[in-house]
């Protein structure tokens, strides 16, 4: 690979999104560098989820460009963006509660390998799926829970499983939407460790409200306020940025 640490893997340029006459995303430029952990923070209603919907293909931009490894992806359907290596988790859980942990990951793996290896013979393909399912369960530390129905996992374990489903398809750009929302302190610590691990060899873009998690995990932070990025910098500089303090962090950062 010729990519260097400075290569943007995901680029947004002049991105805009309006709903009727309301412009929610108002000209966003962002370059996410290969291998970095990048957090998007901002007040409620700033447009963070809308931005994720645009990047993952769940919404079409009104204007502007989105490039993944230099190729335009704006307007493509979510499945084709996913096949190009960008995978997204949702705030609302995506798991099948009655299926076991194993079956959940196996479904995600089958689905993703199906695109790549549809010409393989079934047996070989199933071996591959089994191997990949084991790999994922080991990576997310749920291998001992593989026979448990996903619906009876703890909340923290369910979020870990969701991360497993997100990485099942070999994506190297992960979008995580509030991965620690609603978690206890202990669950948050566990999921932060997991995010750190799964993002070691991947690029991470995440929306997160918990500032401790953001400052702990992120290499860079973008601050979205009323559909515009008002600052994009290292955690230390974001903390010290007066405009950010005023617009968003305020008392929370104190
Ligand atoms: N499909 C839609 N149609 C109309 N307005 C929408 C639509 N989706 C989002 N909005 C509006 O866009 C604005 C930004 O919403 P969005 O969910 O992107 O913000 P957010 O930063 O993710 O907020 P939160 O932190 O509360 O999740 C809100 O005012 C919301 O009402």
From TrEMBL:
Keyword annotations: ATP-binding, Nucleotide-binding, Transport
A molecular function (GO) term: ATP hydrolysis activity
InterPro entries assigned to the protein according to its UniProt record, in alphabetical order: AAA+_ATPase (IPR003593), ABC_AA/LPS_Transport (IPR051120), ABC_transporter-like_ATP-bd (IPR003439), BCA_ABC_TP_C (IPR032823), P-loop_NTPase (IPR027417)
Pfam families on file: ABC_tran (PF00005), BCA_ABC_TP_C (PF12399)
Segments forming domain ABC transporter: 10-251
UniProt xrefs under Gene3D superfamilies: P-loop containing nucleotide triphosphate hydrolases
Any one of the GO CC terms: plasma membrane
Superkingdom as given in the UniProt entry: Bacteria
Protein name: ABC transporter ATP-binding protein
Organism: Aquibium carbonis
